Amino acid sequence: MKRLLLFELTSLGRASERPATAAIIRRLPMVRDGYLYALALTAAAVLLSWMTGPWWAIVPVLLACFFLWFFRDPERVIPQQAGAVVSPGDGLVTDVSPVTIGNQKWTRISIFLSVFDVHVNRSPITGVVRDVRYQRGKFLDARSADCAQQNEQNIVTVEGDGQNVVFKQIAGLLARRIVFHPRIGDRLERGQRVGLIKFGSRVDVLFDASARVDVKVGDRVKGGASILAYLEAQRELAAAGSSATERAH
Length: 249
Hints:
three-stranded antiparallel sheet; single chain
């Protein structure tokens, strides 16, 4: 019986080897960290109640409830429109502006995630991870203009349909840990869960300046569900250019 139980527990740990198990894990209503924090705080509450009195257990119980709520991971309906760039996270759009990096013009959308928002991050497009770069830095207020360059952050480049989309997981005043699971070369689906930032943060999305932006400053967006912009596939642009050339001749 013990061997059978050990086998089952070991098998559950191999989510990547068992698609059915992985699907069950993905449907859990929160990130695993929430359960770990909540269990530790619940144990502390029981210990305090036993050693001192029930009133002393109120604070750890409330904190356990907070962590269960903070690490919630709701299911989302992912848009299927061609070229759609979805929000990597829940929050408030604080900036929509053109930026120039090297010789290329981009549009940048910044989204502030407060401590009350869902902090699970999702891929903005379907594509292949071309680059992942972790940058050490400061922990300035995530709403400040300087945090995009100076704060600790994880910078991810995803290529899909010939277009590169860059999204940044940026730490804030309270955030001290950035989690990103995929590796370079992995294929992501639009809206796929890729990681999270703990306790208040910001996500930036950068894409080609030719894209049609679909949000404005002050909008509230949901990770994986809200469309930020529409990209035109590079192969479609190339085809359009060839047709125009043929017509000219």
